[in-house]
Structures
1.
Amino acid sequence: MSPAARKGYWLVKTEPSVYSIDDLARDGVSMWDGVRNYQARNSMRDDMRPGDRVLVYHSNADPLCVAGVAEVAGEAYPDPTAFDKRDKHFDPKSKVENPTWVLVDLKHVETFAVPVTRKQLLAEASLADMGLLQKGSRLSVQPVRAAEFKHVLVMAKRAGRGAGA
């Protein structure tokens, strides 16, 4: 498969009280800013590509859950919040001419009718190796295997149909 034909799969974490899947649905496209972890930054800068699919995970929430799907809408570019002294993500070491932090734009694709909870994910043997579910996993941007991504979509569709379907 050519690099251009490769599709990547990702998971991003967000606190729904700060920015939820519903906010992304309302906005359509949003800068995924404020990421201040080098490994997550490197994933956005080096590996995320337009068209890649993204699971949107609500962290610091009850319940913890995958709430929907987004798509990477463009290549990574400098995160302007790093240069804004009034922003909580300001980084005095990051310079416009040599930015430390990047972001990607995410486009809303789907909000799950019924979110897929972390508890449900943990119950699936085929997701046992998923990065999100590993002890100590804290990355806010992380790769997901294609099979894992597809399995979560199946779970969401199944949950959305309800018990009587």
2.
Amino acid sequence: MNFIDTMASVELVLAANQVPLLVGETGIGKTSLAARVAVEHDWELVTIDGNLLKEGEIGGLPTVESVTHTDGHGNTHSVKTTVYAVHHTLEHVAQAVDKGRQVLLFIDEINRAEHAVQQELMNLILNREINGFSLSDQVRIIAAMNPEDSFDYQTIDMDPAQQNRFVWLYMNADYMQWIDWAIGAGIEEKVIEFISSYPEYLNQRHEDDIDATPRSFERVSGLYTIYKNQEGSAYSREVFMNVIRGNVGKLIAEAFVNFVESDQEPLITFDDVLAAVQKPGAIMSMAEQVKGESPTRLYVAAKNMLHRLNRNSNAEEVHHFIKFLTLYPGDLRVAVMKDLRNTYERVYAYAIEDDLFVDTFFEAQK
């Protein structure tokens, strides 16, 4: 499933008081999904990384304390009892609940934990208790793991009884949804253009080199921002190439560096649309330019414009955008219009009052 479908599935599973188990390659967005669910509901997000825990750490080390016990005859006796310390992460959970917060406990890399640690985590997930510490009803749990059949990870298989206690949700990378996210997250435009041109690079496995993942390109964006804005030549092309290679592998690094250095025309912007309004033929003067673009680049251009218009726009500007959309191929035009309706509330409020939007939408549906 893609990100949006997986998130909707997680919401449904949590609503049923069950435990979703996200299964996906590293860097695909499992942690980001949990964070987004927490933000959507204003829940406190607490994360446990299973692969970093050692045996006894999450369960707490035992200590012996003296307690007073009264027998059936009324006589008191001092006896020794074992008490377990509470892990600081679980203490964080308890404190958040005490403050009236609801908590989303995200347990990541569950199948990369040592076997003994995995058993402790399973007890926490399935029984909501570990060595005397009980999770409040205000705590919801999402677990995550890497695919068990991947040769890139050392994993510990769960037994069938454990597997049957989860709702398994398989997550895949979707480059179109990544582009949607990237535009809103401020990812460098060149990185977005690169993925729109080479979508297969977003999540690519390399047998003898660094794998490329959605998380990799988030780091690439940060590096490119520094590289392009540097004063003088503190970072050479070779240095830049090396750090990009360290994120996505040699082949994709070379393709990316060549891409950003190429003379490729930039994406059409809303400023271009506004400038065309003043020209003879108005927006229709852009027909040849639109015709020469790939569908993916046109989609990214439209998403950039919608993101801008949703922050600040008026009816006239939205009308210009709709007029520009009439130049798009029919299927792509409908896809953008549906996205406008479902995602961009401010723009849609103007668009639904625009006769051109309504007419164009229904005409394309014929």
3.
Amino acid sequence: MKWLKFFLGSVVLFALLGALAVLSYLRYLEKPLPITEPFVYELKKGSSSNRVINDFHKLGIIEYEEVAKIYVRHKNLSPKLKAGEFEIQRDMTLVELFALLTSNQYVSYKVVLIEGSTFKEARAVLESDSRLQHVLVGLSDKEVLQKLTGNKSSDLPQKGDFVFTHPEGAIYPDTYFFHKGESDLSILKRAHQRLLKVLDEEWSKRQSKLPLATPYEALILASIVEKETGKPSEREEIAGVFVRRLNKKMRLQTDPTVIYGLGDRYKGNITRKHLKELTPYNTYRINDLPPTPIALAGREAIHAALNPKAGKTLYFVAKGDGSHVFSETLAQHNKAVREYQLRRRSDYKSIYN
């Protein structure tokens, strides 16, 4: 009988020890880890769970590596680990830690594409961000556009066609969030799809009888409005001037289009020689709209181009504080120019017509 008592006693002892071990294991899983300050941990692509556990052990966060390995193996978490950057929060438990490392809750960064900037400038912004994967380096703007749209043409868009065959204006200016390692192409694709969505929404709410045959023409005008607007409340009024000039078959005669046509030759000062130079974008020399947008246009500028303010004004001049003086006649305009462009002679006459 002694051996039976010994056997039963041993079973009870091992059961108690087992229960104690399980209880200790469960308590450890739910115990806050010694994380005193939040920090960013980058889980490298291809890292094993053992590597991750070892990293946190070296940091003094996971004390018992074997316990962590048992938990990961029991939950089959190893194949679920996600490569990327994660923000490790103070006092996380082991369970919370691995829940984070197997989630899509990456550290988020942002890049801002600004209204009125050009496609070239937008690309430079993306190229300067070291957190992005740069897959577009060495590609021309048109090659990048092909990746966005699948359009292989290199010609400028024809009036009446809503086809992006030129990169300018093809992306929407906004703040875009991303995680480390996302590609610059991914950002541009999102920006292109956002532009198409906004343009479609605003086109469906446009005024009737506009001199704009397609959404693309609306985008061209919106880009000009974007560049001319210094005071947001004037967008619709500026758009109204351009729409009335188009309706009257008057040239737009707007400096930002001239500057865009000059490209890198523009050094910050526009001259009369520039105004008289024939380029596809010089609206002092060409009729109608330029062939493409000249900048990235935001929703407000697109809305203004499609919903211009009614009136009779055909001219405007900058006052120097971001706002403009609007005029109905050329004589009124010349007077406003002499008043607000102080470097002009008193006998100055605009080349507007």
